[in-house]
Design a protein that fits this description.
The complex is a heterodimer of chains A (about 375) and B (about 475). Chain A has 15 helices and eight strands. The two termini of chain A are about 30 Å apart. In chain A, strands 2-1-3-4 form a four-stranded parallel beta sheet, with helices on both faces. In chain A, strands 6-5-7-8 form a four-stranded parallel beta sheet, with helices on both faces. Chain A has a domain at about 5-150: 3-Layer(aba) Sandwich (Rossmann fold), CATH 3.40.50.11890. Chain A has helices spanning about 1-5, 15-20, 35-40, 60, 70-80, 95-110, 125-145, 155-180, 185-195, 200-215, 235-245, 270-280, 295-305, 320-335, 355-365, and strands at about 25-30, 45-50, 90-95, 115-120, 225-230, 250-255, 310-315, 340-345. Chain B has about 475 residues and is an alpha/beta fold. Chain B has a domain at about 10-225: 3-Layer(aba) Sandwich (Rossmann fold). Chain B is about 55% helix and about 5% strand. Chain B contains 19 helices and eight strands. In chain B, the strands form two sheets. In chain B, strands 2-1-3-4 form a four-stranded parallel beta sheet, sandwiched between helices. In chain B, helix 4 (about 60-80) runs antiparallel to helix 13 (about 275-295), helix 6 crosses helix 8 and helix 10 crosses helix 15. Chain B is globular, with a radius of gyration of 21 Å. Chain B starts with 11 loop residues before the first helix and ends in a 13-residue tail after the last helix. The relative contact order of chain B is 0.11. The chains are: A alpha/beta (about 375), B alpha/beta (about 475). At the A-B interface, helix 6, helix 7 and helix 14 of A face helix 9, helix 10 and helix 18 of B.
Chain lengths: ~375, ~475
């Protein structure tokens, strides 16, 4: 965990450096709708793009605008300033308007030889599932052709199994995190998930074994209240740490750099491409999915109940359309369910915002009587 | 934010409908004195709009256009009265599809918001504020949220269902539609744009479109009647021909088409397309423009700039933008919302008509550009094509703050447009429907500086390059 802590907010980690030095290829992706099993089955390292709260955006701002989400601007910044030059290509998804803009501008400037756009439908129905299955086949073909890698059905099944093992272990981590008293803090868990998102499933699985063994009997220090955090894409480990520094414990989450990235991957098809389509399109607890609000709400309420939280923080980056609107319904429904809510609109990666955020969390804790 | 209280008579649609009832009373060929008399009894914000629409050079055509808007609102009220379903649609959904059904009537949120801004004292701000009071984000789209804010009060004339075809081309509006339908407890029908310009992507879009028609038939309890649809299609085809005639008239210099026709064309397109009345209003616009061409009429001494607005324009001060521009020699050749690419629909069969409508829907503004395989590439291609077609010598991006998808492509489009067509682009910032963000005086000043310092110094027209 100590090594993890020292590396987890690096972009070009020792792990990735080592992978590259051994001649390995790395493909960048950003959205949880990307079937990483496909990349890994090709022998390529899937790398989830992160910015870890990187505060500078001057290059990103030259292409995206101040009206775009700063998470995307920060990632673009790192793409344009060379930090991400170790990537051998990008996989774009239409996660949201800002993300599409980020990828288009990134590719416009960097012109990767491999740039693939995986088009993810916004609803789950048989016709959209068929289309997405074809999309997965096209991605499989594009990776195979460009990198000269064979992606057999067996390799795909093996990768799917490897990820299922990771997801099962992550659920164990969440069980340790959500129990009373908890064994891990929210910041530790986010750090762990972010680290794993730039590792192969097999290596991440081994790391999880170590963490589970180390944390089994652990206990986090005293805290004032158990909270849940949910909302838009954020990999800001520091944000979670700042919130926890007020005495709140982030006992669970519904973030896409958190539980939403792995909690459910149900699917039943025997064909691996179709199975991947089902696993992803059927289990995206993201407001980008149209007409699935009730499913997301139920997932969040179930998570909150399981972790026994006393309140929830709905946070979203300024200009995040999907979560900005979704927050209104969620606030109403969580409060109806007896869970007090703090809606926290914030600017991604802004250290200047830290004091305000802490003050609001402290006020929220007082509201909870803590 | 404290909740704004809206009483039933203050609902946007209710209020606009009452105010538009005066339009029926206004005769054509009014004298300046008569117009001035009317202005004295109107509230200030409405008077400003009416003044813009009743300047002598466009007065009669404007009144016919406003009369069409009144008929559209009448249609919604009549539909409600006789038990038809009133369906709220966004601007990028072709209303002729709804008009094809006997038991449905389309109301278009962006047009309603614009009418509210144009006609109501305080413009649309009270409805926007109501939505903000519920906690909706201040970076939502006012074009949609003004009308939606009024609907959310549950005190206004309410739609029976929502059709959304915004997801894949505009996140904020698609989420707003979803929220509204859930909040009001009304059905939400939807059509996804495949962000895929390949043959496979187009085929998939058609599949989704046909499914939407089935969903509409099921919801309305009505099988689309082929004869009714054919009548709508034939009207739409006639309007399309006239649209292209008007488009071609824009190519003359000085431009004989009044600036505000840009707005009026899509005002018709997004509401009554497919009706005989829409054909008549577009025909009036064409005839007036032809007559101006014959006379060589232009409101300024010289046409100093031919501007194409790359996305939306500003709508909180029609006179302050459209009329001010042409009185200063700056032609508004149209904006992104005029890029409707209407094509004739084959009226032979139900299948051919639905396929034609699907193709029209696929190419509606925003759907076509922002729902493409690449937002910036398709947008750029369309703007480059339109600039060359219309011989634009500058482009203006309005910078409506909520259009995050266009904001994310604006930089690339600006630099590529300069490379491809040697056309400079002015990037403004503001809210197209709310005056609080950037006042018209600042916009005018910026446009004037751009024209004087950049456009006038251009060396080659768009057609001569690339």
């Amino acid at each position: 965990m100590r090594t993890l802590q020292s590396q987890s907010t690096d972009i070009y980690t020792e792990y990735v450096r080592d992978w590259k030095e051994k001649g390995g290829k790395v493909l960048g992706y950003a959205c949880v709708a990307t079937p990483v099993e496909l990349i890994e089955a090709a022998g390529i390292l899937p790398y989830r793009i992160k910015a870890f709260g990187h505060p500078d955006t001057e290059l990103g701002d030259a292409y995206l605008a101040r009206f775009n989400c700063r998470f995307c601007r920060s990632c673009l910044q790192l793409g344009l300033d060379g930090t991400y030059d170790f990537l051998d290509g990008l996989v774009e998804t239409n996660g949201c308007d800002h993300l599409r803009g980020m990828f288009e501008n990134w590719q416009y400037v960097k012109k990767y030889d491999f740039f693939h756009y995986l088009k993810v439908p916004h609803f789950l129905r048989e016709d959209s599932l068929e289309y997405f299955t074809e999309e997965i086949q096209l991605m499989r073909q594009a990776i195979a052709e460009h990198f000269g890698a064979e992606i057999s059905d067996d390799a795909l099944r093996e990768a799917i199994d490897a990820y299922d093992e990771v997801f099962a272990k992550l659920k164990q981590v969440y069980a340790l995190r959500e129990k009373v008293p908890p064994a891990l803090t929210g910041a530790e868990v986010m750090r762990l998930i972010c680290t794993g998102s730039s590792m192969t499933a097999r290596d991440f699985s081994a790391l999880l074994d170590e963490v589970l063994s180390e944390k089994e009997g652990a206990r986090v220090p005293e805290y004032k209240a158990r909270l849940m955090i949910l909302g838009s894409a954020t990999d800001e480990v520091d944000l979670i740490a700042d919130i926890e520094s007020t005495g709140a414990l982030i006992a669970t989450d519904a973030l896409c750099y958190g539980s939403r990235s792995f909690w459910s991957r149900e699917g039943e098809s025997g064909d691996p491409a179709r199975l991947l389509a089902e696993r992803y399109l059927g289990n995206l607890f993201c407001p980008r999915m149209f007409t699935e609000y009730e499913k997301r709400r139920d997932y969040i309420l179930e998570t909150a109940r399981r972790a026994g939280v006393e309140g929830a923080i709905i946070t979203y980056n300024k200009f995040c359309d999907l979560h900005g609107v979704e927050a209104v319904s969620l606030r109403m429904d969580l409060e109806d369910a007896g869970i007090p809510v703090l809606v926290l609109e914030k600017d991604y990666g802004s250290k200047a915002d830290t004091g305000r955020i802490k003050t609001r969390v402290q006020a929220f804790l007082e509201r909870l009587g803590k | 934010m404290a909740q704004v209280e809206i009483r039933p008579y203050e609902g946007l649609i209710n209020r606009v409908y009452e105010i538009f009832s005066i339009v029926d009373k206004l005769p054509l060929n009014m004298s300046d004195e008569e117009v001035e008399g009317i202005m004295h009894v109107l509230p200030a914000d409405l008077a400003k709009t009416m003044r813009a629409f009743t300047i002598p050079r466009i007065r009669n055509t404007s009144l016919k256009f406003l009369g069409l808007m009144k008929k559209w609102l009448d249609g919604a009220h009549e539909a409600k009265r006789v038990g038809k379903k009133v369906m709220l649609v966004p601007f990028n959904f072709p209303p002729e599809i709804v008009h094809s059904f006997e038991g449905a009537w389309p109301i278009t949120s962006e047009v309603l918001s614009t009418l509210g801004v144009a006609a109501l004292e305080g413009q649309g701000e009270r409805y926007w504020d109501y939505a903000m009071g519920l906690g909706l984000p201040d970076f939502a789209c006012s074009a949609n949220m003004i009308e939606v804010g009024s609907a959310l009060t549950e005190s206004d004339f309410a739609p029976d269902a929502v059709i959304s075809d915004c997801f894949a081309s505009c996140d904020i509006n698609s989420k707003t539609h979803e929220f509204l339908a859930r909040y009001l407890g009304i059905p939400l029908l939807f059509l996804e744009k495949t962000v895929d310009n390949s043959e496979r992507g187009i085929k998939q879009y058609y599949k989704y479109f046909f499914r939407l028609i089935e969903d509409m038939e099921e919801y309305l309890g009505e099988k689309l009647d082929e004869e009714r649809m054919r009548a709508v299609v034939e009207n739409a085809n006639r309007a399309s021909e006239l649209f292209w005639e008007l488009w071609d008239l824009h190519k003359f210099a000085p431009c004989p088409v009044p600036n505000v026709f840009s707005l009026m064309v899509y005002g018709v397109r997004y509401t009554m397309w497919g009706t005989e009345e829409a054909v008549q209003v577009i025909r009036d616009m064409v005839e007036l423009s032809k007559e101006r061409l014959a006379r060589g009429a232009y409101p300024a001494e010289a046409e100093v700039a031919r501007s194409l607005w790359t996305y939306t324009s500003y709508y909180f001060d029609m006179g302050g933008l459209f009329n001010w521009m042409e009185e200063n020699g700056i032609t508004h050749l149209g904006d992104g919302l005029d890029l409707i690419f209407p094509q004739p629909i084959d009226p032979t069969s139900r299948e051919s008509m639905l396929t034609g409508m699907a193709e029209i829907a696929r190419n509606m503004p925003m759907t076509r550009q922002m729902g493409a395989s690449s937002m910036s590439v398709q947008w750029l291609d369309d703007i480059t094509w339109a600039s060359r077609e219309l011989d634009a010598n500058c482009c203006i991006y309005c910078g409506h703050h909520s259009c995050k998808q266009t904001w994310s492509g604006a930089s690339v489009v600006r630099s590529e447009l300069m490379k491809r067509a040697k056309i400079p682009t002015l990037i403004l910032q503001g809210d197209s429907w709310i005056k609080r963000m950037t006042p018209i005086s600042v916009l005018q000043e910026t446009i004037e500086e751009f024209v004087n310092n950049v456009v006038k110094k251009r060396e080659a027209p768009a057609r001569a390059t690339g």
